[in-house]
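[step 3/7] fold_predict: job queued, chain A
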Amino acid sequence: MKKILICLLALFGTAAVVSAQPGGGMRRTPEERAAVIHQKLDSAFKLEASKLAMLDTALVALYKAQDAKRQEMMAGGSFDRDAFMEEMKKFNDAQDEMLKAVLSKDQYEIWKEKIQPAMRPQRQGGSGRPGGGNR
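[step 4/7] structure written:
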């Protein structure tokens, strides 16, 4: 009985640790990704509601197209990382053009230098060990 209880506790402990990991492999929906940018832009620059609404619509359409392209390339059987990165760069460039249409030159520079880099997920380098170094 004691061994069963210990095994169950270990199982639940492992499940709790795994479920607490950030991200969990789930991608945000296009609407959620657009909402994050909307919130960042609104809090940083206090843009007009009409500009933000127009940008939200354009970003959602862009992100849906990006997700469809990602699915298509991942399902193709043989995955070409370079072609994938080139396609994703096209979507990033399109997003930049949308932002340039809404932001002033100064605002866009602030976006690229300060806000956008802070939005990228931070990854551990190397082996995944604390400190990230390889042996």
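[step 5/7] annotate
Helices lie at 2-19, 30-45, 49-74, 81-102, 105-119.
Residues 27-108 form one domain.
exit 0
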